[in-house]
Each structure stands twice: as structure tokens, then as C-alpha cells.
Specification:
By secondary structure, this protein is α/β, with parallel strands linked by helices. It has four domains: 2-216 and 352-385, 3-Layer(aba) Sandwich (Rossmann fold), CATH 3.40.50.300; 224-341, Pre-protein croslinking domain of SecA, CATH 3.90.1440; 395-534, P-loop containing nucleotide triphosphate hydrolases (Rossmann fold), CATH 3.40.50.300; 613-772, Helical scaffold and wing domains of SecA. The protein is 52% helix and 13% strand.
């Protein structure tokens, strides 16, 4: 078995750690504190981290024991070795991942490079950092917490100080947004982001798989509001025949050939996908998604005349969060609300490409083995299953399958009542906020007191989940709520059978099911897990074999359990496969923008460094004017308009002596106007002209890049609507993205020329430059 082979390879390293540990037990605290300096010196003198691992791990283990009176188990040491080697340690709930991570974090911090622990949410980052802070302090390792959720973000100087700590605890979203913000800095002094050297990702499957469908986006100025939202919504509202006018999957929807013809008839146009109708197609795709992919009460609520999104991981309402790219506005129009301003995308990155920036990546999770192929393919990380310290006592019972949702709900309530009657705590796990509320209402009607997990903060959520092991407790939660928090059984509960985990449905993939099962059975505790399924569940409605389901219904329910169970597992496998394909598709589409983003960010960094700017102004003017004067539609009005827009607001008209038919003369005249404007600024600014030139170049690059990012976001949405055609949307996207990038480079030159000529520049008495960009 591969896992056994992987663990056998680690056993000699484990023996070395334990051998080193025996040497440390008699040392004084002062002697232990001095060890970090010795290890750093050994690394700087050429020792590898692999060679230093036994000493470093043994030292960290001894410090943890003295600080916390906890001596790490062998299985935790094995997990720590896996993390150091850049793989994913699959460790079950309650096995002590928080302290396990301290060892590889400490080892990598010895290098002086940046070392991170990345969690899915702010609560976990702050909680875990507070727990390990005394340990790192004893070891002489500085600890930073890069989390400012719900509070004002610190300035660049304070962020830089936090990120320069030896070890940084943060969240995946905070890290991503800070990366994007750092690459919007207008000067070197405002740069704060560190190098991305080594990171451990906690709840790795959540962060690296479940969260990656939604890219990180920073929004800027609003677009001009369009009435196309209403027109597109009116059209989509007429499409009542699924499969004829449109196809809708779990995450994508597109018009069929008949639907395209209907759109052309509705809008009285000849060819829907002609370039002139780019914006119309974008709004049609938004309206289709709003109507057929986003369900009221499941994906969002309408509250106080606003669209409130529902977190599909936890079931909580997402306050202050909006869908991007115009989708939120499409939902508002669908619900007959006035559309809010649509903001342009200023910067974006997917989680996949964010984490691929790290020199070395590792992860830990309770459920990763089933997705090992994807982890290997995308992140080059194997999943190593670490055995539990104590044997698992939890009983995983066979699914109970029912023909209808009503029958299933009745059976779920009966089991909850039976457990509660004897005082056995119950964790009732649902697939949505709506179903959580339904079960809550039903329990209330039966007089059963319970806790409904609908907390608005991670801390409160963790508190509720932590109390789920109390005598007689009934806790209702969605599938991902409170992840990362152990459920500890109250005294006497073990004798009652431990925690009962009752899941009201099978979920989108086997990993989620395993996460739910893992709520019970912590550190050898007793307990059981029971899944309930109906043939009317969303999973089977969306992914089930329609022919087999029809046969079963026609048979009057006379089917063997094994065939029904296989039907459920096949639907789940189909759902999981689709999720994998969507993540792969997102990564494939993002290749173009990643390539462009890397080039632009490299250009920005060069502009921010004073010794890097090399710009041939004559060539800049020549290239910009070449594009103008090679136009076949060149006229006196076109040239005058160009001069007004790019060179001088005070320009009135071309001189009468110029031969307007002589393009070379017109070009020479325009060139001289530009030279005069630039030379005027050079004389006024003197040595400060280089500063002005750098800032103008940066402004031009940023403006063109913002337009490019925003266009690529829209382009992807538009091309998602041509899946029914014979073209390859991915190929078309990369081809058009390349052309767009070439045009962006031209826009950079045009913007720079405009800023050089039209900007107003002032020098204050203390020599500070004030620039008003034209």
C-alpha cells in the first residue's frame, strides 16, 4: 500500500528526532533558548534543512512540552515531517494539527525566509496564533498575525512590519488581497508584501479546492450604468423551455442554437456574437446565470430590499459581499430591485495561481486522500495519510434511503428524538440554510430544544460547535460550519454512545461526507455517523441517472438497497468530477491573465525602482503618431481632435499654411507640438522630471492594465455563452486575450503621451511634486 510505504520511509527520521529529544530533557531553559542561534548558524554555514530537522523538531517538541505540558505523539511528528517535505498530511479531527504545524514552521523560519500558516478564516488564524505565540517566543522566533477583518487595515509600514516576522499567520483571502494591493502601490515606500517562500495551508482541501471557484477581485470606479440589464432580464424571462432555448448545468448556462435565434429575433439583430454586440451578450449571460444558476433562499436572500448572499460553505449570510462582474446587478434586476453601481475589476487572481507563487507549499487536512490526484496535478503535493494516535471507535452506519423527501425528514426526526431521549448529543448536518431552518422549525414544534448554527462570526460559530458534545445537546449546522474546532464530549456522554452525527443528505463529494463523519470519534471517542438520502434530494435531481430513477419510481420502490446506494454514489461521483473539471477550467482560463499579470507586475516593479527606468521619448512619440497617421480615415478633424485629447487643451486649429493632404507635414507639426510640451515640463521640473516621468509611466501602465483586467473578465463571461457552438471557448479566449494585450501595450503609450503633455505639475515650497494627471 502506497501510504504504508510513505510512512515506512519516514520512520528513520522519526527515530533520529526521538534520539535528539533524549538529549534535551535535562537542559535548562536558558540552554534550550540558545539552541535557535546555533541552528541558524549551522544553516548559514551550509547545513541543509533535512540535516537540521531532527534537532529542530526535537527542540520544538521539548519547548511545547515545557510550555503546554503536552508531549507530541509520534503520529504528530510524522505529520510534521510530511509538512516539511512539501506534501499534505491527512490527519483526522482532534489529532493536534495546530501544534504539529509548529515544528516545520520553526524549521523553515531558521532560514530567514518568509514562512506562513494560512487558514480559511480570520478566527482560526487568530486563535491558532494566540495558542502557539508563547512557543515561538521561547524559541526566539517572531510571530506576525496578518488579519484585519472587520477593522481598519493598517498602513503599508505596519503591514510591512507584520509580514517581516519570521512566521506569519494569516488567511487565504487576506494574503491574496494584500498581494493585489501591494501591486497597486504608487511608490516603493508603499510596497509591503514579502517573498512567498514556504507555507502550510490548514484545511487544505477547503482552501485549495472548495474555495478556488471564486477569484479574488479588487474593484474600483463604477461603470456607466447600463439599461441592458433590464432588456436582458426581459428576454431571459421569456425562456421557459429548458433544453430548447438554453442548457443549464451546476455552474454554467448557455443558449442553444434555437435560443440564439430567438435572441436575434427579440433584439432585431442579424448575428448575436458579432463584436458590436459584445456588451449585449455579456448582459444576456449575466441574466441567464441570475435566473438559472442562482436560487433564492439557497444562494441568496432578499432582505431589506437588498440581495444578501449565502455562504455555501457555512450557510451564513455574507454581509458586505457582492458578486462581481455584473452578476449582482443581474440578480437585483431579477428580483425587481434597482441595480446598484457595477464596479470595474481593478485587480484579480485565482487562489490556485496565488498559491503557485510559493517556492514550497504544504498542507494539512482531515480529508485529502480522495482528491490526491488533483493535488498532485495542480500543486505537486502528495497526500500522506497519518494514522490516528488511538484507534477510531466511531461506527459509520449504512445510508438510509427513502423514496421521498417527506419520508426522509420523518425518519431523520425519529432518530434525533431517539438519541435525545437517552441524552446522547446530536449534530444534525444539513446542506443549506433553508434546510437548517426547516429542521429547526420541526424540532421546535416537537418541543425539542436545540441550537441552530447561524452565527455571524467565526468565534461564535466555534463556540457553538465546541458545545455540541454536551449531554442532551442538539446542534443544527451546515456541512462546513465550525470546521477546525474540536467537539469534546462532556462527562458521561461516552457511556451514552458518544456524539451522533446525523447528515440529512449526501453532499457534493466524498470529501465533505468524510468531514462530516469526522465530527465524531475524536481521539478514540465513541460515536456514530448516519446519512439519510431521498431520491428527491438535490444531488440526485441534478446528477442522478434519470433513466434509473424513473425505473425505480415505476417499480413502486421494489429495488434492492445495493442498487439504490450505487445510484447515489454514481451521482456523487458525477458531481465531484464536474467540480474537478470546473476547477481545471478556471485554471486553464486564468493562464492568459496570469501571463499578462506577471509581465505587468514585473514592469511595475521596474518602474518603482529608481535605477530601472529607461524610456526613449522620441520613439514613444513616433510609435503613437504612426498609429494615428497610418489611418485611412485621417482628416483635419481627426488630427485636431487628437491634439485636443492628447497634447493641448488650448489648441484651437491647424495652421492655414499646412497642406492638409500632406501626412508627413501634419505628423511633423504634431510631433513638434508634443516636443514643445515635454520640453516645457523638463525646463520647469529640472532634475524632478525623472520623478514625474516615472509616475506618469506608472499611471499609464495602471490605467491600461485596469481596462485589460476588466475586459478579460467580461470576455470570459461572454465566451462562456458560446459553448453550444462549434468553436472552442478556451482557444478563442486565449487568442483574443493575446490580441487584447497587444492593444493594451499601445494604450499604455497613448496614456503616457497624454499624461506627459496634459498633466498639470506644481512644485511646493518644500520641493514636493503635485501632479494633476490629464
Amino acid at each position: 500500500m502506497r501510504t504504508s510505504y510513505q510512512l515506512r520511509r519516514l520512520k528513520p527520521i522519526l527515530a533520529q528526532i526521538k534520539q535528539e529529544a533524549s538529549k534535551l530533557q535535562s537542559l535548562s531553559e536558558q540552554a534550550l533558548r540558545e539552541k535557535t542561534s546555533l541552528l541558524k548558524r549551522a544553516f548559514n554555514q551550509g547545513q541543509s534543512l533535512d540535516n537540521l530537522l531532527p534537532q529542530a523538531f526535537a527542540l520544538a517538541r521539548e519547548v511545547i512540552f515545557r510550555q503546554r505540558a503536552l508531549y507530541l505523539y509520534d503520529v504528530q511528528l510524522l505529520g510534521a515531517i510530511v509538512l516539511h517535505q512539501g506534501n499534505i498530511a491527512e490527519m483526522k479531527t482532534g489529532e493536534g494539527k495546530t501544534l504539529t504545524a509548529v515544528l516545520p514552521l520553526y524549521l523553515h523560519a531558521l532560514t530567514g525566509k518568509r514562512t506562513f500558516l494560512i487558514t480559511p478564516n480570520a478566527y482560526l488564524a487568530q486563535r491558532d496564533a494566540a495558542e502557539v505565540a508563547p512557543i515561538f517566543d521561547f524559541l526566539g522566533i517572531t510571530l506576525g498575525v496578518a488579519v484585519w477583518e472587520g477593522e481598519k487595515a493598517p498602513d503599508a509600514q505596519k503591514k510591512r512590519a507584520i509580514y517581516q516576522a519570521d512566521v506569519v499567520y494569516t488567511t487565504s483571502s487576506q494574503l491574496g488581497f494584500d498581494y493585489l494591493m501591494d501591486n497597486l502601490a504608487d511608490r516603493q515606500a508603499n510596497k509591503f508584501f514579502p517573498s512567498l517562500d514556504y507555507a502550510i495551508i490548514d484545511e487544505a482541501d477547503t482552501v485549495l479546492l472548495d474555495m478556488v471557484q471564486t477569484p479574488l477581485i479588487i474593484s474600483g470606479a463604477p461603470r456607466v450604468q447600463s439599461n441592458l440589464y433590464q432588456m436582458a432580464d426581459q428576454f431571459v424571462s421569456t425562456l421557459d423551455d429548458r433544453g430548447i432555448y438554453y442548457h443549464a448545468g451546476k455552474k454554467e448556462v448557455w443558449l442553444t442554437e434555437i435560443g440564439i435565434k430567438e435572441a436575434e429575433r427579440f433584439f432585431n439583430i442579424e448575428h448575436l456574437y458579432a463584436p458590436a454586440y459584445f456588451d449585449l451578450v455579456r448582459h444576456l449571460m449575466l441574466a441567464l446565470k441570475a435566473h438559472y444558476l442562482y436560487l433564492k433562499q439557497k444562494d441568496y436572500l432578499v432582505k431589506n430590499e437588498e440581495i444578501k448572499l449565502i455562504d455555501q460553505q457555512t450557510g451564513r449570510l455574507l454581509t458586505g459581499t457582492k458578486l462581481q462582474g455584473g452578476l449582482h446587478q443581474a440578480l437585483e434586476v431579477k428580483e425587481q430591485l434597482p441595480p446598484s453601481p457595477e464596479l470595474r475589476t481593478v485587480a484579480t487572481i485565482t487562489y490556485q495561481n496565488l498559491f503557485l507563487l510559493f517556492e514550497q507549499l504544504a498542507g494539512m487536512t482531515g480529508t485529502g486522500k480522495t482528491a490526491e490526484g488533483e493535488f498532485l496535478e495542480v500543486y505537486q503535493m502528495a497526500v500522506v495519510s497519518i494514522p490516528t494516535h488511538r484507534p477510531v471507535q466511531r461506527r459509520d452506519l449504512p445510508d438510509r434511503i427513502y423514496p421521498s423527501l417527506t419520508e426522509k425528514i420523518g425518519a431523520v426526526l425519529s432518530l434525533v428524538q431517539a438519541c435525545h431521549k437517552k441524552g446522547q448529543p446530536v449534530l444534525l448536518v444539513t446542506g443549506s440554510l433553508t434546510m437548517s431552518q426547516l429542521y429547526s422549525n420541526l424540532l421546535l414544534s416537537q418541543g425539542l430544544a436545540h441550537t441552530l448554527l447561524n452565527a455571524k462570526s467565526g468565534a461564535r460559530e466555534a463556540e457553538i460547535i465546541a458545545g455540541a458534545g454536551a449531554y442532551g445537546a442538539i446542534t443544527i449546522a451546515t456541512q462546513m460550519a465550525g470546521r477546525g474546532t474540536d467537539i469534546i464530549l462532556e462527562a458521561g456522554v461516552r457511556e451514552l454512545g458518544g456524539l451522533a452525527v446525523i447528515a440529512t443528505e449526501r453532499f457534493a463529494n466524498e470529501r465533505i461526507d468524510l468531514q462530516i463523519r469526522g465530527r465524531a470519534g475524536r481521539q478514540g471517542d465513541p460515536g456514530f455517523s448516519q446519512f439519510f438520502v431521498s431520491l428527491e434530494d438535490d444531488l440526485l435531481e441534478e446528477y442522478g441517472n434519470k433513466r434509473q430513477l424513473k425505473k425505480w419510481r415505476q417499480s413502486g420502490g421494489n429495488k434492492r438497497y445495493r442498487s439504490l446506494y450505487r445510484l447515489v454514489k454514481e451521482a456523487q461521483a458525477k458531481s465531484d468530477k464536474l467540480g474537478q473539471l470546473q476547477r481545471a477550467n478556471a485554471l486553464a482560463f486564468d493562464k492568459s491573465i496570469k501571463f499578462q499579470r506577471d509581465l505587468v507586475y514585473h514592469q511595475r516593479d521596474a518602474l518603482l525602482r529608481e535605477d530601472q527606468l529607461q524610456l526613449d521619448l522620441e520613439q514613444l512619440v513616433e510609435q503613437a503618431l504612426h498609429r494615428l497617421f497610418q489611418s485611412e480615415n485621417l482628416s483635419e478633424q481627426v488630427v485636431e481632435r487628437y491634439i485636443l485629447d492628447h497634447v493641448s487643451y488650448r489648441f484651437q486649429s491647424l495652421p492655414s499654411h499646412l497642406d492638409l493632404q500632406d501626412k508627413m507635414a501634419l505628423k511633423a507639426y504634431t510631433q513638434q507640438l508634443i516636443r514643445d510640451k515635454i520640453e516645457q515640463k523638463q525646463r520647469y521640473l529640472g532634475q524632478d522630471f525623472a520623478v514625474f516621468l516615472r509616475l506618469a509611466s506608472l499611471k499609464a501602465l495602471d490605467e491600461a492594465w485596469i481596462e485589460e483586467v476588466d475586459y478579460l473578465q467580461q470576455l470570459r463571461l461572454v465566451l462562456s455563452g458560446v459553448s453550444a457552438s462549434q468553436t472552442n471557448p478556451l482557444f478563442d479566449y486565449h487568442q483574443q486575450a493575446h490580441q487584447a494585450y497587444l492593444k493594451m501595450q499601445e494604450r499604455v503609450q497613448d496614456y503616457l503621451l497624454t499624461y506627459l503633455c496634459l498633466s498639470e505639475v506644481e512644485k511646493t515650497s518644500n520641493g514636493r511634486l503635485i501632479i494633476y494627471f490629464g
